[in-house]
Write a structure and sequence with these properties.
Blueprint (H helix, E strand, L loop, with lengths): L4 E4 L4 H11 L3 H9 L5 H8 L15 H13 L3 E6 L3 H16 L4 E4 L12 H9 L2 E7 L6 H9 L3 E5 L13 E3 L15 H16 L4 H4 L2 H10 L6 H16 L3 H9 L9 H17 L4 H8 L3 H36 L8 E6 L6 H12 L3 E7 L2 E7 L6 H6 L7 E4 L3 E6 L4 H15 L8 E4 L1 E2 L7 H9 L12 E15 L5 E8 L2 E7 L6 H4 L5 E12 L2 E13 L5
Parallel strand pairs: 1-12, 2-3, 2-4, 4-5, 5-6, 7-8, 13-14, 16-18
Antiparallel strand pairs: 8-9, 9-11, 10-11, 14-15, 14-17, 15-16, 17-18
Length: about 575
C-alpha cells in the first residue's frame, strides 16, 4: 500500500470565528461548518433541515415540458410504454421507480433491462425491437442513451419515440431523440448537475404530477429507490440529493417495499441504522449481482414485487450470486496483480492497462477499482471474449478518464461514463495499440505529485473533544456521502492501551484501544494489518480517523474508524 500524505483542508479562520460567535459553538464545530460552507443561518437551515419544498422546479431542465407532454399524450391514448434501464443499481432502481410510478397513474408499462454479456451497455436494438413488438410507441430510458446515436435513429425508423433520462456527460452533438432529460447537457441551465440517472427519472415523474395535478406522494413513496441509486452511483450528497436521500433512508428503514425489506433481512441490516455507507456496501452489491452474473431484470422484479415471500427468494438468490461474484473478483484481482508485477513498468508509466481472455465482464469494474487503490494509478481492466473486449476504467483526481479515452477513440468501438469511472468496448486486435495510446496520454498529462495519495483531514483534535454535544453535531451532518463526507480528524501522540488484535476472516483488520489524557476509545482499522508492528513498539502514534459507532448485541459504543496510522511526529 502506497503511503498517504496527510493534508489539512484549508479554511477561513476569521469565518470560523464568526460562526462560533454567531451560533455559540465550540471552535472545532465551527471549523467543520466553515469547511462545508455553512456560514450563516439561512445556509444552516437549508443544510440541517432538508425540505422537499426546496427542490428546484423540474421544468428548469431542458426538454422537460416536451417530455411531460409526450408522456401525457401516450397515457391519454392508452398506448404502451417501455422503460429501458441500464443493468447497474442506478439503472435498475430508476427503472423500478418509473415502472411503479407509471403503473400508479394507470399506464400500460413494461420494462427492459439489457443482457450485459450479449447486448452490452446502453440502449440496445433488441430493447427497441421489444418495444415495437409489444406495440409500445414510447420508450423511456433510465441512466443511459445520451450517446446512443445509431440506436435512437433505429428507434425513429421503427416509429418508437424515445425520451432519454440520463446524467452521463454527453457529446457536443445530441442524439435525435424526442426529448432528452439530462442536467449535464451543454445547453441545460438546470441549477443542480449532480443527479444520478434515477434522480433524473424522479424529477421527470414529479414534473408530470405538477403539470397534471397528480399527488406528488405517488413519486415520493419511491424516494427509497432514488436514495439507493444516488448512494450507489457516488454522486454528491448535497443540494437535491441530500433531500432525496434523507427522505429515502426514512422509507428504507420502514421496509415498506417487500424487496427492500428482503434486502435488509438477508443483509443482516433489519435492526441496524440505514446509512449511505451501508447502502453502498451492503445494498448495492446485492442488486448489482443480478446483472453481473445473470439477468439484471431480477433486480427490477425484486424492487417492484408486492410479494414478500417471492422477494426473499430473489434476495437470497442474489446473496448467493454476490458470494460467487466475490470469488471471481478475488481470482481476477490476484491475476491482475501478477500481470502488473510481470508486464507493467510502474516507474515509467502513469497508468495501468490490463487485458485478458476469460475475464468476466461483470466484475472488471470492481477489479479496476482494487488495482487503482493498490497502485494509485489510473487503471483499465479489459475482459476479452470471442466478441471482442469490454473494459472498465477507474481514475485518480485531476485525470479525466473520459477525456483520455477520447484521445484514443480511433482504437475503440465505444466509450463513456464519468471523469473518475468509465467504460469502453474494443476489438481484440486493437488492444495493444489502445494501451500504448492511453499510456502516452497518461504519461503526458499526469504529474508525479498526482500519484501521491493524499488523505484530506478536516482538523486536528484531541480525544477529549469527543463529547455528547460534538457527537450530536456529527449526527446532524448526515446523510454522509460524496460532497459531504464524514469528517476526518487527526489526533497526535496518542497511546496504545493494551495489546492490539488482528481480527476478521483473513486477520487483516486491526482493533485496539487508544488513550489521550483521560479519554479512551476503541479504534478499528479495516485492512490495516500492516500497521501492527507500529502499535507494539510502545511509542506514541498519530492517527487519522472518522468517528463512528459500533453496534453489538443491541449496544452502541463510540468507535474511531481509522484512515491511517503513523508513528508520532512522522505525518508530514
Amino acid at each position: 500500500m502506497i503511503q498517504q500524505q496527510w493534508t489539512y483542508k484549508p479554511f477561513d479562520e476569521a469565518m470560523a470565528k464568526t460562526i462560533a460567535e454567531e451560533f455559540n459553538l465550540p471552535p472545532l464545530i465551527a471549523k467543520v461548518m466553515a469547511l462545508r460552507g455553512i456560514i450563516n443561518r439561512e445556509q444552516s437551515r437549508h443544510f440541517f433541515f432538508p425540505d422537499r419544498d426546496k427542490l428546484h422546479s423540474p421544468f428548469l431542465m431542458e426538454d422537460m415540458e416536451k417530455a411531460v407532454l409526450r408522456l401525457h399524450e401516450q397515457i391519454q391514448s392508452e398506448g404502451g410504454i417501455v422503460v429501458f434501464g441500464d443493468y447497474d443499481v442506478d439503472g435498475t432502481s430508476g427503472t423500478s421507480l418509473l415502472y411503479l410510478f407509471l403503473k400508479s397513474v394507470g399506464v400500460e408499462v413494461h420494462y427492459y433491462i439489457p443482457d450485459r454479456e450479449n447486448e452490452g451497455y446502453g440502449l440496445s436494438k433488441k430493447g427497441i425491437e421489444y418495444a415495437q413488438y409489444i406495440g409500445a410507441s414510447l420508450l423511456i430510458t433510465c441512466d443511459c442513451a445520451i450517446n446512443a446515436f445509431g440506436q435512437i435513429d433505429y428507434a425513429n425508423e421503427l416509429e418508437v419515440d424515445v425520451i432519454i433520462t440520463d446524467h452521463h456527460k454527453p457529446d457536443e452533438k445530441l442524439p435525435n431523440a424526442f426529448a432528452i432529460l439530462n442536467p449535464n447537457r451543454f445547453d441545460c441551465d438546470y441549477p443542480f448537475k449532480g443527479l444520478c440517472g434515477a434522480g433524473v427519472a424522479f424529477k421527470f415523474a414529479l414534473a408530470y404530477c405538477e403539470k397534471y395535478g397528480k399527488d406528488p406522494e405517488l413519486v415520493w413513496e419511491h424516494s427509497d429507490l432514488a436514495a439507493i441509486a444516488t448512494a450507489a452511483d457516488l454522486v454528491p450528497i448535497v443540494d437535491e440529493n441530500r433531500i432525496i436521500v434523507q427522505d429515502g433512508i426514512k422509507r428504507i428503514s420502514t421496509g415498506a417495499k417487500p424487496g427492500v425489506k428482503a434486502l435488509l433481512k438477508t443483509g443482516g441490516l433489519w435492526d441496524k441504522e440505514v446509512t449511505v455507507g451501508r447502502l453502498v456496501f451492503w445494498f448495492s452489491p446485492k442488486i448489482n449481482a443480478a446483472g453481473r452474473l445473470g439477468d439484471a431484470g431480477r433486480a427490477v422484479k425484486l424492487l417492484t414485487t408486492k410479494n414478500f415471500i417471492y422477494a426473499m427468494e430473489v434476495a437470497k438468490e442474489l446473496e448467493r450470486e454476490n458470494d460467487r461474484r466475490k470469488e471471481i473478483t478475488q481470482h481476477m484481482v490476484e491475476e491482475a496483480i501478477m500481470m502488473v508485477n510481470g508486464t507493467c513498468d510502474l516507474e515509467k508509466d502513469n497508468a495501468i492497462v490490463l487485458a485478458k481472455k476469460g475475464w468476466h465482464h461483470g466484475v472488471v469494474g470492481i477489479v479496476a477499482s482494487r488495482i487503482k487503490e493498490l497502485y494509485y494509478k489510473p487503471t483499465i481492466i479489459i475482459g476479452i471474449d470471442d466478441n471482442g473486449g469490454r473494459g472498465s476504467c477507474r481514475s485518480i483526481p485531476k485525470f479525466d478518464m473520459v477525456d483520455a479515452l477520447a484521445h484514443c477513440k480511433e482504437f475503440l468501438n465505444g466509450f463513456g461514463g464519468h471523469p473518475i469511472a468509465a467504460g469502453l468496448s474494443i476489438d481484440t486486435d486493437k488492444v495493444d495499440n489502445f494501451k500504448q495510446s492511453l499510456l502516452a496520454v497518461a504519461n503526458k498529462q499526469i504529474k508525479a505529485e498526482q500519484l501521491q495519495p493524499r488523505l484530506k483531514i478536516d482538523s486536528e483534535m484531541k480525544l477529549t473533544d469527543i463529547n455528547g454535544r460534538f457527537l450530536k453535531f456529527l449526527s446532524s451532518l448526515e446523510p454522509y456521502g460524496p460532497g459531504n463526507m464524514r469528517p476526518t480528524f487527526a489526533a497526535k501522540n496518542v497511546k496504545v492501551e493494551g495489546l492490539p488484535r488482528l481480527i476478521g476472516k483473513t486477520y487483516d483488520t486491526l482493533k485496539f484501544m487508544v488513550k489521550h489524557d483521560q479519554s479512551i476509545f476503541e479504534a478499528i482499522g479495516f485492512g490495516m494489518a500492516e500497521h501492527y508492528e507500529k502499535l507494539i513498539r510502545n511509542e506514541p502514534i498519530d492517527i487519522a480517523f472518522a468517528i463512528g459507532e459500533n453496534e453489538w448485541n443491541g449496544r452502541k459504543t463510540i468507535q474511531l474508524e481509522l484512515k491511517d496510522i503513523k508513528l508520532g511526529g512522522k505525518n508530514a
